[in-house]
Design brief:
The protein is mainly α. The chain has 29 helices and six strands. Among the domains are: 162 residues, no CATH class; 134 residues, no CATH class.
């Protein structure tokens, strides 16, 4: 499952977003159809009406689309453009799970689909798989039997249930094996091998196409596969070394039966035996044991047997040595096993289960997360952002804070693209950590497209360590969002260094600074006044008056008067009084000079209050009438 990974909705094009929203509407209407059939039966007029609404939702969604609805099928969800559009985490009475179990990996509703085809598709989804008459049928067979013209599907050519979503499929397909042969035992990548199925008339023998590429001949004999197109040389075949821990279809089915039929104690003992094998044998055995245990974990999760999984993994964690003794070899093997178990797929499934769990069941899922190694922190950090706000989400992030130490940089990278609530929880954890990698996390947050995330990153910088974040603050003072620039200016004003002062002086001299609004100009000039001595520059601006002055020039003169008052400049007092007496004077300069004259006469407490009014509101408060 990849519910918690992949593209975010903010990366979709307008057309992709329309298709995603339309598909969600389609499945909401489909749910209504299924409920209506359950309540009223197939022939009721209410059911007929809901079917019509469902068909109309499909037509509206695919209208104008060249590709239609091209859905990817996962164990518990349909996705479109890597975004979940329909979910059902319960394997019971779940057609998504049935499709996935039968090897279907995509379902494509093409433009031009007819009402009859959509009704036939609904009929397939309504199939009661407990009916003995369907013992030899699967979802692929039923789809094929409907003779669809505008509904297509893709079926895995080889048995894939044994492999998790991110598994190395080369251990399971002919094409994959050939790739490994050509690589001569080198690192294997992922080969997605699927066979596209389109309902069509039966072949010459009248039979439906095979759901899986089994490679078998009629009568049970093994077929001869033509490899002439694979381009494999005899030397490459000689160099090929089979993976010592590959599990074929038969082995996986045996394992699946063991997991499904074994009692709690038997299953725990089986895992303990596997662990002992890993301890006493060589590295290849450890790889095979790890692969087997991962598959056991996957089977238990897929069948929602989380209590059994809790006991099995708890037993595995407890195998540290005889009678509680801690043996290094045991601890090392346990760590290796749990580092593999706690992959992204496992964490995603546990988080999904936690999201839907009741308050009484939630501790079981939290316990599963706590069993994992710290290396799983990045997967937990990514997946936890999908949890709804509340106690369960808080508990996961609190645990993340305990194990994040070695993954700060990786977790920090999430801040570049995550949403504001997710960033809030991650920053809450990171702000209490004194580590160089936190700086890179702040950098990532300041590159987030959401101004709320960038603002939270700035707001949580430690006040006593602002110097460490000086480059970030200087960049933030030029941020595209005004609220970020204002926050950065307030923080830079606390750093009275030549570098900060020079940076701000250069900014107000740039040509495009005239486009900045007056309240923000005030903040810039106030920060300049607090980080160095710009008196000479400010005096020159205030004294530089022309009959043809532009409003932008007058803004600068007004801000210069304000800055001189903040510097308590005695040399500026005659200028303030002179500007106040001019008959032809701009309102902003007159207001600033009046404010300056009263400001220099105030006590320190009032001057501080007025300074905060400039930074937080951009206004001159306490102006004399």
């Amino acid at each position: 499952m990849k519910i918690f990974e992949g593209r975010g909705e903010d990366t979709l094009s307008p057309e992709e977003r329309r298709l995603v929203e339309g598909s969600r509407t389609v499945f909401r209407e489909l749910d209504k159809v299924l409920k209506a059939i359950g309540l009223y039966g197939l022939e009721h007029q209410g059911t007929t009406r809901f079917r019509a609404v469902f068909r109309q939702a499909v037509m509206s969604t695919i209208a104008g689309s060249e590709d239609g609805m091209n859905l990817a099928v996962g164990p518990y969800e349909f996705t479109l453009h890597d975004i979940a559009v329909y979910q059902n985490p319960n394997p019971d009475k779940n057609f998504i799970y049935r499709f996935f179990q039968d090897g279907i990996r995509t379902l494509h509703i093409e433009p031009g689909v007819s009402d009859d085809e959509l009704d036939a598709l609904v009929d397939v989804l309504l199939t009661n798989w407990e009916d003995p008459a369907l013992f030899e049928d699967d979802a692929v067979t039923l789809l094929w039997s409907k003779n669809f013209e505008h509904i297509t599907y893709e079926v895995m050519e080889s048995f894939q249930d044994a492999a998790p979503a991110d598994a190395d499929l080369k251990d399971y397909t002919v094409t994959g094996v050939m790739e490994r042969v050509k690589e001569a035992g080198g690192p294997s990548g992922t080969v997605n091998v699927v066979g596209q199925g389109r309902s069509a008339p039966a072949g010459a023998d009248g039979r439906a196409p095979e759901a899986f590429g089994s490679g078998s001949m009629p009568g049970g004999g093994r077929g001869v596969v033509d490899l002439s197109a694979a381009g494999v040389s005899p030397e490459e075949v000689d160099a090929f070394v089979e993976s010592p821990f590959a599990m074929d279809e038969h082995e996986f089915l045996v394992l699946k039966r063991i997991v499904e039929t074994a009692g709690d104690a038997t299953l725990e003992k089986f895992v303990e035996i596997l662990f002992r094998v890993a301890l006493v044998d060589d590295g290849e055995a450890l790889e095979r044991v790890t692969s087997t245990i991962e598959r056991i974990v996957g089977l238990l999760l897929m069948s929602d047997r989380v209590d059994d999984l809790r006991r099995v993994l708890g037993k595995l964690r407890a195998l540290t040595g005889p009678e509680g003794e801690l043996l290094f070899e045991n601890l090392q093997t346990i760590s290796t096993l749990f580092a593999c178990i706690g992959n992204a797929d496992f964490v995603d499934r546990v988080i999904l289960g936690l999201e839907t769990a009741t308050a009484e069941r939630a501790p079981v899922y939290l316990y599963l997360l706590r069993l994992l190694e710290p290396q799983s922190a990045i997967h937990i950090a990514r997946a936890a952002g999908r949890l709804s706000p509340g106690e369960k989400r808080n508990a996961v992030f609190d645990y993340l804070a305990e194990i994040i130490g070695g993954s700060i940089r990786e977790v920090g990278r999430l801040l570049q693209n995550c949403n504001a609530p997710h960033a809030h929880d991650l920053i809450r954890i990171l702000r209490s950590i004194d580590h160089p990698d936190v700086v890179s996390a702040i950098n990532a947050a300041l590159q987030n497209h959401d101004a709320a995330v960038r603002l939270e990153a700035l707001s949580n910088l430690p006040a006593d360590r602002l110097n460490a974040y000086l480059p970030q603050l200087l960049n933030a003072s030029k941020d595209r969002a005004k609220i970020i620039r204002n926050k950065a200016l307030h923080m830079l004003a606390r750093l009275a260094t030549p570098q900060v002062h020079l940076h701000l002086m250069q900014r107000v001299r740039e040509k495009d600074f005239i486009q900045v609004e007056l309240d923000e100009k005030r903040r810039f000039f106030a920060a300049i006044a607090l980080t160095g001595d710009p008196s000479e520059y400010f005096l020159g601006l205030l004294d530089e008056r022309s009959f043809f002055s532009r409003r932008d020039d007058e803004d600068h003169r007004a801000c210069a008067a304000m800055g001189l008052a903040l510097r308590m400049s005695a040399a500026a007092l005659p200028l303030f009084e002179r500007e106040m007496k001019r008959k032809l004077q701009s309102d902003q300069v007159r207001e600033a000079c009046a404010w300056a004259l009263q400001h220099v006469r105030q006590n320190k407490e009032e001057r501080t209050r007025q300074l905060y009014e400039i930074f937080f509101r951009g206004v001159l408060s306490g102006v004399a009438s």
